[in-house]
Write a structure and sequence with these properties.
By secondary structure, the chain is α/β, with parallel strands linked by helices. The chain folds into two domains: about 130 residues, Alpha-Beta Complex (Aspartate Aminotransferase, domain 1); about 220 residues, Aspartate Aminotransferase, domain 2 (3-Layer(aba) Sandwich), CATH 3.40.640.10. α2 runs antiparallel to α3, α4 runs parallel beside α5 and α12 runs parallel beside α14. The longest helix has 24 residues. The radius of gyration is 21 Å and the shape is globular.
Length: about 375
């Protein structure tokens, strides 16, 4: 069974892969071996062997996401990557960054911080629920574009609402309008096929520790070659005016970030190999079909209005159900403490959602348990149906 290949506590019904992912045993073992090698010979690892491993890992990641290895750098997490971009982005007073009201809260805070410093404006365009079609979404989104818009920042898959957004169409239209595109793809690698070069976004950020199943603290920042000149690193170190420069100034600047344990980066090729050995295209497709199947069952049973069509255009391996509840933390605690179900209950502006994730090790029994538990809690008045 594939569940036996993970380290997750078998006592927990784990339906929250979207938050932090989880490592297969073989990936975690590789990660710990790199850590052990580092501690056995820190100097050689940090200055020689570890650097070779890092270059190899970077090459494997670039091949997996579809870009040149000199255009992607491995970083701790998507927040670090977006902060790198937001701090370096040359914003002027009055400039606008167009986004949606569906973005990850930490990213909203990042952009508001840097926009306030520059006198720019972060425009969170309201998306009408329920979304009827890609066309309606795109119309809603582009209604927020003005003559002052300079940048589009948007999630490929949203966090709280778990929706696949039409990023291909957005990138194409943004290019036509002469706008810079910055895509938050934290949930994409391992959940959806990704070809960064074909997408043609200016900046693409993704996590390796979510659906790619890497150790925590493994993510990436891709920047298109012609945009790299303005992307300063958050930390200036030995890569600046390097005594042994590589063929990529972008890599030199961003890869060298002082003393740190980058073993999580080195485990990424083992994630890719794990997916290949387990025929992940079929696994992923099965999980998406099961997510859609159970989303429809929940919709029929609970009678809510789905926030978007329950199709593979909008739904991957996560689905968010709208509910009415004053204190989301209360329901989340009840589900975990009393029923041993790990599933997030999110607040997105005024809306509250329960979001389940369906990964390779999940089963119909897991979903039926969540289904029956929510049915019981609803009957007790713990929450009401929203949407």
């Amino acid at each position: 069974m594939i569940k036996d290949q993970f380290l997750l506590d078998p006592a927990i019904t784990y339906l929250n892969f979207g938050s932090f992912g989880a490592c297969p045993k073989i990936v975690f073992d590789a990660y710990q071996k790199f850590q052990l090698e580092l501690e056995r010979q820190p100097v050689q690892f940090m200055m020689h062997t570890g650097m070779k491993y890092l270059n190899d890992a970077q090459g494997a990641l670039a091949a997996y996401i579809g870009c040149d290895a000199n255009d992607v750098v491995m970083v701790m997490n998507p927040s670090y990557a977006i902060n790198t971009i937001a701090k370096a982005l040359p914003l002027n007073k009055g400039d606008e960054i167009l986004t949606t009201n569906l973005e990850y809260g930490a990213m909203d805070r990042t952009w508001r911080y840097y926009c306030e410093k520059a006198g720019a404006k972060y425009v969170a365009q309201q998306i009408t629920f329920p979304i009827q079609s890609k066309e309606q979404f795109l119309n809603d989104f582009w209604d927020g574009c003005t003559a002052q818009t300079k940048v589009v920042f948007i999630s490929h898959i949203t966090s709280a609402t778990g929706l696949i957004l039409p990023i291909e169409e957005i990138c194409r239209e943004a290019r036509r309008r002469g706008l810079l595109t910055i895509i938050d793809g934290a949930h994409v690698p391992g959940q959806l096929p990704l070809d960064v070069a074909a997408l043609d976004a200016d900046v693409y950020v993704g996590a390796c520790h979510k659906w790619m199943m890497g150790p925590k603290g493994a993510s990436f920042l891709f920047v298109k070659r012609e945009q790299q000149h303005w992307v300063d690193p958050l930390l200036i170190s030995w890569g600046f005016q390097s005594e042994a420069p590589s063929e990529s100034t972008f890599i030199d600047y961003h890869q060298t970030a002082g003393t740190r344990d980058f073993s999580s980066f080195l485990a990424v090729p083992f994630c890719i190999e794990f997916m290949k050995k387990n025929n992940w295209e079929l696994v992923r497709s099965h999980c998406q079909k099961k997510t859609i199947e159970w989303a429809n069952r929940f919709k029929v049973e609970f009678g809510f209005q789905s926030i978007a069509p329950i199709t593979d255009s909008f739904i991957g391996q996560m689905y968010s159900m709208p509910i009415k509840l004053e204190n989301p933390d209360l329901l989340k605690a009840i589900l975990y403490d009393q029923y041993q179900i790990e599933v997030p209950v999110f607040k997105n502006q005024k809306d509250v959602f329960i979001r389940f994730s369906y990964q390779a090790f999940n089963t119909d029994e897991d979903m039926q348990y969540l289904f029956d538990t929510l049915k019981s809690l609803k009957s007790k008045g713990i929450f009401e149906i929203g949407g």
